[in-house]
Specification:
Blueprint lengths: L10 E7 L16 H19 L6 E7 L14 E4 L5 H9 L8 E4 L8 H5 L12 E5 L5 E6 L4 H8 L9 H11 L4 E3 L9 H10 L4 H10 L6
Helix pairs in contact: 1-7, 2-4, 6-7
């Protein structure tokens, strides 16, 4: 009798910037100061890592722009930190998928959706649910995307899908969906989430997870005169 091989657990990738003043969440300034924006980014990354640490996975990787020392105290045990390559965001996303080991699906998310819940990913990435899926797409409310998953990840496929896609526009998500369709991939949609780009986004997102680190940071920041 032939043995039935278990489906390999997914690789989880987080692409992020080190939460240092002047390098992250600059669209929050004003009303936030660069220091406050960095504190919010740090809290968003902490929530994201904490959530993904509870999603079943084979490997967990933080692909970081900036010094590892800036996030060392945020990393749960078992996370691997890898440096981002240079170039535009499309090139950095392509390179991030190049870190995913072959033979298992990989899902990449950013640090801008601290309201993300573990069940949002755990169910669709489970072995039973992912049968027949080639990719997963998480749309963002601003027209971008917060997640991209590939059932058979490779840097070549990521390049085909991402290289040249205009990033940070209201058409980014639609452009990526068009690439996925051109590649004839069966795409499973994930729920739409709001990226934190503006103070209004931060207020709305913090209300969705009032007990998280991001919500606590936003409450602290929003009490200041500059934000109020």
């Amino acid at each position: 009798m032939r043995a039935v091989l278990a489906a390999p657990p997914p690789t989880l990738l987080v692409i992020a910037k080190a939460p240092l003043p002047g390098r992250v969440k600059t669209r929050l300034c004003p009303p936030c100061t660069p220091q406050q924006a960095a504190e919010l980014a740090r809290a968003a990354l902490a929530d994201t890592l904490r959530t993904l640490d509870t999603v079943p996975a084979g490997r967990r990787m933080l692909v970081l722009d900036g010094p590892t020392e800036a996030v060392a105290d945020l990393l749960p045990p078992g996370w691997q930190v890898l440096p981002q390559c240079g170039g535009g965001l499309d090139e950095r996303l392509v390179a991030a998928f190049g870190h995913a080991p072959p033979g298992a699906p990989a899902l990449l998310v950013g640090m801008d959706t601290p309201q993300l819940r573990a069940e949002t990913l755990a169910q669709p990435l489970s072995a039973a649910a992912r049968s027949g899926a080639d990719a997963w797409f998480g749309p963002a409310a601003d027209g971008g995307f917060w997640a991209l998953g590939l059932a058979r990840p490779s840097q070549a496929l990521a390049r085909q899908l991402l290289l040249g896609v205009p990033m940070s526009t209201e058409r980014t998500g639609a452009a990526l969906l068009a690439r996925l369709a051109e590649a004839e991939l069966t795409v499973r949609q994930l729920p739409e989430l709001t990226d934190v780009d503006t103070a209004a986004d931060a207020a709305a997102v913090s209300a969705l997870d009032p007990h998280g680190a991001f919500a606590a940071s936003w409450r602290s920041v929003s009490r200041t005169a500059e934000v109020a």
